[in-house]
Design goal:
about 200 residues, alpha+beta, globular
Length: about 200
Amino acid sequence: MNLQIKLFNFRGIPVHLSLWFLLLFFWMSPLITISVFISILLHEIGHAYTAQKRGYSVSGIEIGLFIGQANMDIDSIRERDMIPIVAAGPLVNLMLMSLSVIGYLSFPHQFFNSMYIVNFFLLIFNIIPIFPLDGGRILRSILILNTKNREKSVQISAWISLLFSCMLVVFYLFSFSLIGIIFSILFVAYSMKELGWIKM
């Protein structure tokens, strides 16, 4: 059973939406859900567009329940190209925040307020130095470029990722956020994978 629908092509890249995403309409308001969809979609398009401009192939863009993904061969991307490609996503969210403020001042509709809140959250969340979030990937690339030692850089960034992931677990435990706890535990697992402690 195919749980994805194709929405359109962006510069030859197929964009798919998981039907699981529609569950958000039962959990959040329609305005917030639409804002989440637009923001995640444009975030991933930012990654994909920048990757194409730097000569890399992107096989597809997928929007899932809480996440999006621009599918590309990460291992083939040079570190000096990785930083702008990864940073493009959060920069899109920053741009959308700015446009939301301008839109709200020009036409004070709740949609612009929703877009601002969603993109503020996505920006802050994505720049946390946790792998595989954008912040974690950027930190690792910066370390590799500066130390010229990939193994050491991966270890350092993985330890930082693990530290921040554990802090998130504690934060969400005290916040009683089930979704936050699940995601932060996944981040702990990804960090442990980077350290070579477990296989995923």
